[in-house]
Amino acid sequence: MFFGTAFFYEKNGCKKLEKLNFYYVDMKYIRDLANADSNVLSVSPQDNKQTRPFVGVILVCGNRTYCVPLSSPKKKHETMKNREDFSRIIDNNGRIIGVLNFNNMIPVCQEVITPIDIRPNRSDPPAQIGRKKIMNIQLDWCNKNKELICKKANKLYHLVTETPEKMRSLTRRCCDFKKLETILDKRLENIAVK
């Protein structure tokens, strides 16, 4: 699984961070980005990941809107520490319930994102209710840490786009943000023409 919205804007000279939400990102758009940059998280049928939704936190990096993907926790995450391009999401019992992969964040626009309803519904099957409960806990953690999330994303964005030579190993792990922005710009031009 991957993850919603933190837009910040200027109001009387102060930055205000809106509440985060979860969003799906359009699969065709993800494939277009992945064709240009192998660091984009795969939704490829060849990798048996075509049914995996790309879900993320949406925020502003520089003057662009970006989606920071949320992934389900894996065994390797238990020993990984938070760093410039990675954060663990921990529940109240100290368990890892998700991770944010800042290095895999992608530029998005309104046309490629869809809000997710994570409110449990009586008609939901039990497995879906369980997923929604976890997503609610993840979202609560993200909202409690939204300023940290935005600062980390912006710091990484500026490091990779303005001073990539500073930390080459980190830059290699990250998506090519500028290249992906040109793909988004072309998509927006095509939408404007229609």
Question: Outline of this structure?
Answer:
By secondary structure, the chain is α+β, with helices and mostly antiparallel strands. Helices cover 36% and strands 23% of the residues.
Annotate the secondary structure layout.
Layout: E1 5-6, E2 8-11, E3 14-17, E4 23-25, H1 27-36, E5 55-61, E6 64-71, E7 86-90, E8 96-101, E9 106-107, E10 113-115, H2 126-144, H3 146-162, H4 168-173, H5 177-193
Parallel strand pairs: 1-5
Antiparallel strand pairs: 2-3, 4-5, 4-10, 5-6, 6-8, 6-9, 7-8
Question: Characteristics of this structure?
Answer:
single chain; 194 residues; alpha+beta; eight-stranded mixed β-sheet; two-stranded antiparallel ribbon; 5 helices; 36% helix; disordered N terminus
Structural notes for this entry:
By secondary structure, this protein is of the alpha+beta class. It has five helices and ten strands, in the order E-E-E-E-H-E-E-E-E-E-E-H-H-H-H. Strand 5 (55-61) and strand 6 (64-71) form a beta hairpin. The longest helix has 19 residues, at 126-144.
How big is the Rg? 17 Å
Order of helices and strands: EEEEHEEEEEEHHHH
* First and last CA, distance: 32 Å
Mean pLDDT: 84
Estimate percent helicity: 25-40%
Relative strand content: 15-25%
Count of individual helical segments = 5
Shape: globular
**Which structural category do the helix and sheet elements fall into?**
alpha+beta
For the biggest sheet, the summary is: 8 strands, mixed
Spans of at least 5 consecutive residues whose pLDDT stays below 50 are 1-15
Q: How many β-strand stretches? A: 10
Oligomer: single chain
